[in-house]
Amino acid sequence: IVKLYFMNNYLKFIEDEIKKNLNVEKIKVIDNSFKHKSHKFFDIDKYHLCLEIESKYLKSLDKLTAQRSILNILKKEMKSKIHAL
Asked: What's the angle, vertex CA 45, arms to CA 43 and CA 48, rounded to 5?
């Protein structure tokens, strides 16, 4: 139960960080960690996340720049808590 509570708060934290730093119309953060349990380097303390973002601002950028914008916002999290995005 504690892990689930932390996970839900963490997903909300990721959503809030992106909203705080980018103009987004809609965002959904999906935890796909369970799909990777059999992987060799699976770490229960790191997340495999999928982001679904609707943003006129991001759409105005080329895909690589848009992706870099997201990764820059989540730079600290990518080093500590996110294995894959």
From this structure: 70
DSSP string of 12-35?
HHHHHHHHHHS--SEEEEEE-GGG
Residue listed under structure tokens 């990764």: 71
In tens, the pLDDT along 24-61 reads 999 999 998 877 566 666 666 788 899 999 999 999 99
Count of CA atoms in the C-beta half-sphere (13 A) of 5: 2
CB 36, CB 48: distance < 8 Å: yes
| Percentages (nearest 5) of helix, strand, coil residues in the chain | 55, 20, 25
